[in-house]
Amino acid sequence: MASSPHTLKLEVVEIDNPKELNFILGHSHFIKTVEDIYEVLVQSGMTLKFGIAFCEASGDRKVRFDGNDEELTNLAKQNAMKLGAGHSFIVFLDKGFPVSVLNAIKAVPEVCRIHCATANPTSIIVGKLGEERKGILGVIDGFCPLDYENEHDKKQRHDFLRMIGYKR
């Protein structure tokens, strides 16, 4: 029996990220998303390597893509096609962290939402209506906490942030 176009089915889509790279998953509303995010990342002034893919939700319904690293661009394309959620975008990063570019990406006029920015194992909860419509409903990022941090853990966190240059 064919499903009704109004029957919501849930799917879990695992982000393929074999090298545990940082990535940003978001939602946008316009075909120029790829170009605008590319410009933001290139202007970050870092040695950032990246690949971007965007799922067009109408018209030709293509996965639009760009980047300055072929491997990262291919990874973004493959994950975007697997997600298949209209107007979603994914950006894979190397030689930089999302925290360095996240506010600039959020400031892109057509970006509506950032779902996550992580290098953790990530599962995306996708809602599917019929055979041609999908949307991101939520994100499961990483694992559950095991305990509270202690003084030793606080010192490690403090030292780590200084080691990578995010605190003085």
List keywords for this structure.
alpha+beta, 4 helices
Give structural notes.
The chain has about 170 residues and is an alpha+beta fold. The chain contains 4 helices and 8 strands, in the order ββαββαβαβββα. It has helices at about 35-40, 70-85, 100-105, 150-165, and strands spanning about 10-15, 20-30, 50-55, 65, 90-95, 110-120, 120-130, 135-140. A 5-stranded antiparallel sheet has the order 4-3-5-2-6, sandwiched between helices. The chain is globular, with a radius of gyration of 17 Å. The mean pLDDT is about 95.
Spell out the blueprint of helices and strands.
Blueprint lengths: L7 E7 L7 E7 L4 H10 L6 E7 L7 E5 L2 H14 L4 E7 L7 H5 L4 E8 L3 E8 L3 E9 L9 H13 L5
Antiparallel strand pairs: 1-7, 2-5, 2-6, 3-4, 3-5, 7-8
> Main sheet?
5 strands, antiparallel
Elements, N to C (H/E) = EEHEEHEHEEEH
Mean pLDDT: 93
Give the strand line-up of the largest sheet.
4-3-5-2-6
Number of helices: 4
Helix content: 25-40%
Approximate shape: globular
Q: Which percent range describes the beta-strand content?
A: 25-35%
Low-confidence stretches: none
Rounded radius of gyration (Å)? 17 Å
Instruction: Return the structural class.
Output: alpha+beta
The total beta strand count reads: 8
Distance between the ends: 62 Å
